[in-house]
TrEMBL record:
Family: Belongs to the BET1 family.
UniProt membrane topology term: Single-pass type IV membrane protein
Residues spanning the membrane: 100-120
Taxonomic source organism: Musa acuminata subsp. malaccensis
Superkingdom classification of source: Eukaryota
Protein name: (wild Malaysian banana) hypothetical protein
Cross-referenced Gene3D superfamilies: 1.20.5.110
Length: 122
């Protein structure tokens, strides 16, 4: 556990001078940091790089999944739009014909359908 604490303190000391994109003077000189501390710092950086690589891979997979889902949704909306367009064309045809018999049949069908749904849900 002590070596882990030393590793953390060495890593903190190594990166202590980096702030907001600039480097400030550190309390440690380059002569005081030995090769072992550099290796430990490199391992820490490698771990962070690996974590970031996995994270970006996961983000990429998630974006691809959402793109596929949006494509399917767009295709479903297009097919729904086609069905509704056909239905609207049929309604226009029915309403454009001045046949009172067809209009009465249409109104009676809607009323019967409404009553049927009303009594089935009650």
């Amino acid at each position: 556990m002590n070596s882990r604490r030393d590793y953390h303190s060495n890593r903190t000391a190594l990166f202590d001078g980096i702030e907001e994109g600039g480097v400030r003077a550190s309390a440690y000189s380059s002569h005081e940091i030995d090769e072992h501390d550099n290796d430990l710092a490199m391992e820490g950086l490698q771990d962070r790089v690996n974590i970031l690589k996995r994270l970006t891979g996961d983000i990429h997979e998630e974006v691809e999944s959402h793109n596929r889902m949006l494509d399917r949704m767009g295709n479903d909306m297009d097919s729904s739009r086609g069905i509704l367009s056909g239905t609207m064309d049929r309604f226009k045809m029915v309403f454009e014909t001045k046949s009172s018999c067809r209009m009465a049949t249409l109104v009676a069908s809607f009323v019967a359908l409404f009553l049927l749904v009303y009594f089935l849900t009650k």
